[in-house]
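Cross-check.
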Amino acid sequence: MSARVMFIGEAPGEQEDSTGRPFVGRAGKILTSLLTGAGLSREKVFIGNIIKHRPPGNRDPKPEEIVACTPWLELQVNTIRPLVLVPMGRHATRYLLNRIGVKFVKITDISGTVFEGEPFGFPQKIIPVLHPAATLHNPRSREHLEEDFRKLGELLRKIGR
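Predicted model, tokenized:
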């Protein structure tokens, strides 16, 4: 498998856990719509998660769970070798940006910003976005998320998808 763009979520939700496929629930429908708006399709990107199992009660991933799953994510990234990484949500963003020495407080302050570095040993661009599920809890975040994906589309046009 190869893809120029890799989306990284936080953890599988209930439907994702039961099907073994990422982003197939309500947040997945939102993601598919946003991909289309950015000129992408699910078939042209790779979608994964920071941790590979659903945390009990759908709680936030614990640091030790992220550490335990890191080898799997590293293997995926190094196999696919995407030019652009798109962490979705604060946990995935914190994990990736920490790998290039970037700290942040709020995801909303840095989403849509392009960072460059070598988080996995080769040059990549990282553009964090809000998690699509954020719009399920706060419909006003949809505009922010759409703006993040507009910026992603611009980045991909610049680098020649």
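The first strand starts at residue 5 and ends at 9. Strands lie at 5-9, 46-49, 84-87, 115-117, 124-126. Passed to J.P. for a second look.
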